[in-house]
Amino acid sequence: MKQYFTFTDLLIATVIVIICAIGLKTTASTDSAEKIIIETDGKIYASYNLKSLGKEARDIEINTKYGKNILRIDCEGADMIYSDCLNQIDVRHKKITKSGEIIVCAPHRLTVYISGSGEADAVSR
Length: 125
Prior knowledge:
By secondary structure, the chain is α+β, with helices and mostly antiparallel strands. It is 21% helix and 38% strand. It has two helices and seven strands, in the order αβββββαββ. The radius of gyration is 22 Å and the shape is elongated. The N and C termini lie far apart (58 Å). The model has no long low-confidence stretch (mean pLDDT 84).
């Protein structure tokens, strides 16, 4: 009976699979969110370091001349839980957790986004 794979062939294939797995793991973790930044009228209203926030959620009340919003932040990200604007798009938006994600309340001229050291994708370039 003819042997198709030798021990050396199997060893080389195993090493290649291990190298590929390590490469995938390191590239998958390049998107690290660092700060939650809140802007009103294009000016920074507040910023919070994600690493310094605890596991317990914190509600941030944002009062401007355009209206009131409440943002819930924790070490994982930010979620708009209340807005007195009419369309409520920002409240229905999912929680943002990755660098580059954004929540916008256009009637209140409010922008919440996460900045970090992750690489930008093709859309944000």
